Amino acid sequence: MTRLYRRRDVLATAAGGALLPLVPAQATPDTMAAAIKEVVGTAPLKPGKVKLDLPPLAENGNAVSVSVTVDNPMTEANHVRSIHLFAESNPLPNVVHVTLGPRAGRAFFATRMRLSTSQKVIAIAKLSDGTCWTDSAQIVVTLAACIEDL
Amino acid sequence: MARPLINVPAKAKKGEVVDIKILISHPMESGQRRDNSGQPIARDIINLLVCTYNDTEVFRAELFPAIAANPFLSFCTVATETGTLKFTWTDDHGTVDTATAPIEVT
Amino acid sequence: MIRFFVVALLAFAAVATAQKKSGYEFSSRETQAMQDDDAANPGFLWVQQGETLWNRRDGAAGKSCADCHGEANNSVRGVAARYPVFAPEAGAVIDIEQRINRCRTEHQQAKPLAYESDDLLALTSFVGKQSRAMSIDVAIDARARSTFERGKTLFEQRQGQINLSCSQCHDDNWGKQLAGSPIPQAHPTGYPAYRLEWQTLGSLRRRLRNCLIGMRAEAPPYESADYVALELFLMARAKGLAIDTPSVRR
Q1: Which residues span the domain enclosing C220?
Q2: Which of A11, A114, B38, C72 is most buried (CB neighbours < 10 A)?
Q3: C166 marked as binding residue
Q4: What is the per-residue pLDDT across C14-43, written as a single tens digit (0 to 9) for each?
Q5: Which residues from chain A sit within 8 angstroms of residue B53, using beta carbons?
Q6: Is the preceding peptide bond at C192 cis, omega within 30 degrees of 0?
Q7: For the segment C35-84, what is each residue's pLDDT rounded down to a tens digit?
Q8: What is residue A14's predicted lDDT score, i.e. its pLDDT?
Q9: Which residue of B has its CA nearest to A7?
Q10: Among residues 67-126 of chain A, which lie with CB inside 8 Å of chain B?
Q11: How many cross-chain Cβ pairs, A to C, lie less than 8 Å apart?
Q12: Is residue C14 part of a domain?
């Protein structure tokens, strides 16, 4: 079958829907681990409390809606201090670091992020007691045909 | 676009948790792209956004190039008193912009 | 006998209408949600700016759009649903961008705004938004006929390195997948549109150029009358669909 387009990054689309994205520069597991360690320090990362809301499939990686909700009170004594997002296969692992406090009332944050390819996204919440909680989600990022030159 | 799009409820009850949304016009150039002649395009992003409520900081976000163009941020705050939410953001050139939205608390 | 044909024709038209789908229906749930929330739809950055420009005095005449037109929700409501139109003073079919620039040069005595400039996109999307949810109904009268026919020819003719016509994708194969995306029916309901691929708002002209580049055909310069012809044909073809400017599309 014919190739319908060519992208400067050499991005080939085979007929039948198979996608062969040529992945650009990627965060290595080491830089990812380092980025997470910078936030978490030596605290153990526990699954739970955090809900990362991410669609299973994005029709374009340029603006993917994402939200994080943490099931925890927001009082002076016990609150979520920060929320962090990481993307495993982006050129850089950090997406956003959010600082919250009791004045938030609810531990919620939403944004739109770039994802260079299908990958795992990780959310981490740091609580006032120093504990760190996490959730992750896998997302498939599809690529468009007939794209415009940059 | 000169102004951001800010969504803060005009009125709220004291103690109510309200949703805040802000959309800022900015290309968020990631520093990962090249132009048609193959030259890298310099990184140019908003790297920090802070929201204060009557001068008390209630929200802070450190942004990276993985935040989409025309950044959209949504978060919550407790309506404590009538006053002003002030948003301050900083880009890679060190330029600081601000915008405000009033809230009436009853 | 005549009655039979009329009934048959109406039935045919009904089927065609039932199959007619806005690009919105080919969008993912997340993209639809981004469009539906005015506080999250990035197109509203331009709509808001357009409102500012609408009320700003400009040009040697020192007039704003509002000085002549008043409140936009009264005066230009419905415009986006019936444009492009034949403008006798121009002797040609013109689109909203051209109407805005004619207003600028003739009534405001200001410089025309460049295609794809934020100011022209802002005014066009502000005007377009006033027709949100209204049904597209473009008139093809005798004066617009030749432009419509030109647009139809352009839509149906094969062109470019892969020898493809617009119609082969958007009439014959809509709903099928092209790479990771469904092929829509090419109804320009929501322009200017915020496209995730562009990471910005763009005009229908830019979208048409984008298609031509994708087809590896030559995209004429922005000023080309061929774009107006295609716009007229596409808007006539989209009759009955609702305007959803500023739309969000992949």
Answers
A1: 22-250
A2: A114
A3: yes
A4: 445 569 999 999 999 999 999 999 999 999
A5: 103
A6: yes
A7: 999 999 999 999 999 999 999 999 999 999 999 999 988 899 999 999 99
A8: 33
A9: B36
A10: 67, 87, 90-92, 94-106, 108-116
A11: 74
A12: no
CB within 8 Å: B58 and A104: yes
Residue C2 lies in a domain: no
Annotated domain spans of chain B: 5-30+45-105
**Identity of the residue numbered B82:** T
- CATH, domain B5-30+45-105, list 3.30.1030.10, 3.30.450.40, 2.60.40.10, 2.40.50.140: 2.60.40.10
Residue by residue, DSSP assigns C54-120 as HTS-BTTTTB-HHHHH--HHHHSTTHHHH-SEEETTTTEEE-HHHHHHHIIIIII--PPPPTT-HHH
Closest CA in chain B for residue A111: B73
Give the minimum alpha-carbon distance from C89 to chain A in angstroms, rounded to a whole number: 35
Whole-complex ipTM? 0.95
Question: Which residue has 């030596």 as its token pair?
Answer: A42
Q: Do A59 and C196 touch (CB under 8 A)?
A: yes
Q: Is residue C182 part of a domain?
A: yes
Phi, psi torsion values for A13, nearest 5 degrees: -115, 115
The predicted-structure confidence for C107-152, as pLDDT tens digits, reads as follows 999 999 999 999 999 999 999 999 999 999 998 999 999 999 999 9
Question: C87, C92, C183, C211: which is the annotated catalytic residue?
Answer: C211
Q: Is C130 left (phi over 0), alpha (psi -120 to 50) or beta?
A: alpha
CA distances in angstroms from B33 to A25, B28, B39, B62, B65, listed in the order given = 11, 11, 8, 21, 11
Neighbours of chain B (3+ CB pairs under 8 A): A, C
The closest alpha carbon to C185, from C7, C23, C36, belongs to C23
DSSP per position, A100-150: --GGGSS-EEEEEE--SSSEEEEEEEEETTS-EEEEEEEEEE---SSPPP-
Q: Is residue C31 part of a domain?
A: yes
The H or E element containing residue C207 is helix C204-214
How many Å apart are CA C229 and CA C96, to the nearest integer?
13
Class for the domain spanning A24-141: mainly beta
Q: Which CATH number fits the domain that encloses residue C114?
A: 1.10.760.10
Q: What share of chain C is helix, strand, coil (3-state, %, to 5)?
A: 50, 10, 40
